[in-house]
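haha ok so turns out i had the wrong file open the whole time. this is the CORRECT one, sorry everyone. sequence first:
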Amino acid sequence: MSSSKPNITEKVYNDVLNLLLSGKFSPNDKLPSENELKDMFGVSRNTIRAVLNKLAVLGIVETRRGEGSFLKEIGTHMYLNNMVPSVMLNENDLVGLMEFRRGIEMASARQAAINATDEDLRGMEQYFEEIHKKETSSHDFATLTSDFHVKIAIASKNEIFVSLLELIKWISTSKMESFLYYKPDVEDSSFYHYMIFRCIKEHKPDEAAYMMDRHLESLVLRVRDYIEFTRTHSPEEVEKLKERKYVKNIYGMDK
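then structure:
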């Protein structure tokens, strides 16, 4: 029974999104209330809340406390979020997500190496300051790393890259934390992050794209390995991995 719930939520999400894209609503228009939407689509209020939350996370609607939900400005990002391959919206398809990222982030890194400002570079440098604290938890490393990739997209000066990387961050951060428990050694990832940053700082677009490609290739292999582990071990053994709270072997910028 529970397996049908995600399908219902996804169907209602698509129906509501089509309604918003139909032209019946203008930016800043108030959406029907949760009760009105519930009756309109014949589902529970919890389903409507899940749909509105997803639309808010994707930047399509804005929820104002005590007022309701409002349609945000319709721009490229709104259509982009609707057109993103379904693999990105399937939280279980980690390999598909990583493979999708590979091409996007190569282009993002290339453009960042061309367009990054001093302010962009300072923002990226903060990442290395944070991960080199005494102990970095898997949760913090996953969050900081996702933010680092978004900062590269921001430096690219391409709003589509930024929208995509924000969406990837939303989907993948908690998953990344899980496979950091499995393999807490992050020397390879932190090395590639530093090399990507250095290439961007030195305005070497081809080299930045190459390093990003190598980084995402290694990440795909790491994810495949983790998925295989979860398939061949009990849920208790997978859960026990959470005892490994901290990452290790972070690459030092002074090496």
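The first strand starts at residue 61 and ends at 64.
again sry for the mixup
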